[in-house]
Amino acid sequence: MKGPPTFADHGTSRRRGTESLRNVALKRCATEDRFQLSATEDGFRKAALKRCATRERCATQERCATQDGFRWSHREQIGGATGDSFRWSSPSGLLWSLACVAALVLGGTGEVQAQQPPIAVRGFADVGLRTFAARESFEAIFGSARALLVGGGADVIARRNMFLGLRGSRFKDTGERVFLFDGELIRLGIPATITLLGVEVTAGYRWDRDWRTVPYAGGGLGWHIFEETSPVALDGENVKETFIGYHAVGGVEIPLWKWIAAAGEIQWTTVPNALGREPNGISRELGESNLGGVTGRIKIIFGR
Hints:
Layout: H1 7-61, E1 62-65, E2 70-73, H2 91-115, E3 119-132, H3 135-142, E4 146-158, E5 162-181, E6 184-206, E7 214-229, E8 239-257, E9 260-270, H4 282-286, E10 293-302
């Protein structure tokens, strides 16, 4: 049987209780420290994740276009980029980007214009179909009011837009002399050859805007030589005269390959008081005097 506790036992018990309290306190402190450390580490972890996410978002949102010289941004959803959801980072960024785009466009156009020579000389050849204004007279002599004209020339282009052209053309065909008697057309069986030579000067404007096609329009004047001959004509019956005419032209030019281009154009020409001058001529009987007409033409151009 155990006797009553001695003083030494009380000291031992007190030391054990103190150690227990110390252990509990240390355990509690360790737990609290661990909790605080865990909380701190969690905060650091969250801050680090937030920082990483911010850096990643910034890296994916902002892209620098080194070739174009401006920035744009796009938004990506968490877990997968949409790719088609774009937004401007700020109103000032939008204005800055638009200004950069305008500068690039204007600058690129300026570079292209700078590459073009201030003055360019080109040559061309063409073929056209003219419908004469003196329709009945040509139908009476040749059987048709339409005739094929061939020509060529050169033009000078200044600052890509304004142009000045010189063109020559020729028409020649042989028909039959006729006369009108009581409203009836009588063919004489005598050959008649008509030759038309034209020299025209045209000034105009080209809408060269780096498009695939280049529209243009212009106008000018020309000298038209009319000659009529016949193998059985008497002295003074053959005719050769020069008349001044005026014209307007419009068309579209299409580049084909480097120094070669093609163009389609329509020209209206008037040469007043050129026909009907002979007392017994068919044109006088029919009341037609204009040697002009409307011509559809195809051109092949050589040069820049």
